[in-house]
Amino acid sequence: MESLSFTFPAGAAAKRRALVGCVGSGDLEALLEPGETGVLTVKVLTSVNGSGPRWEQLFQRLFSGQTWPALSIDIHDFGATPGVVRLRLEQGLEEVNHD
Questions:
Q1: Which of 19, 24, 62, 70 has its CB 3.0 to 4.6 Å from that of 35, i.e. a possible disulfide?
Q2: What whole-number distance in Å separates Cα of residue 49 and Cα of residue 35?
Q3: Is 44 left (phi over 0), alpha (psi -120 to 50) or beta?
Q4: Are 60 and 30 in contact (CB under 8 A)?
Q5: Would you call 39 exposed, middle or buried from its count of C-beta atoms within 10 A (0-12, 13-18, 19+)?
């Protein structure tokens, strides 16, 4: 198991929490909670050792395309593909932005 941490710029704090996905074969779970204004933090616990550069590249692409709300994101990964990671985080973003 490997534990990774990342920080990115963000907008105003999210208004709510969200839990998306589930840990299982080839999937992941993501918990999104309101964070400190201007900061988005991501903590990843993954079963794939040595995957830090892949996670960093994925997050750089995902978080540079739009301004995300300030969040604290905890990800529990069991070998999910980059497409699944993106899908889960976009599902979580939809939930935290839902009125």
A1: 70
A2: 27
A3: beta
A4: no
A5: middle
Condensed to tens digits (0 to 9), the pLDDT of residues 75-96 reads: 999 888 888 999 999 999 999 9
* Domain edges within the chain: 2-97
Spatial separation of the C-alpha atoms in residues 61 and 69, rounded to whole Å: 16
Q: Please state the pTM of the whole predicted model.
A: 0.92
For the cut 80, the answer to whether the pLDDT of residue 97 exceeds it is yes
Check pLDDT > 80 for residue 39: yes
